[in-house]
Amino acid sequence: MIEIIKLSETTHEKNFVRHNITGYPYYLLLLVKTPARFFYNDQFNDTPADVAFVFPPNQPYLYHADLDQDCYTDCWLHFQLDKPL
Question: Per-residue DSSP letters for 16-78?
Answer without folding.
Answer: -EEEESS--SSEEEEEE-S-EEEEETTEEEEE-SSEEEEE-TT--EEEEE-TTSSEEEEEEEE
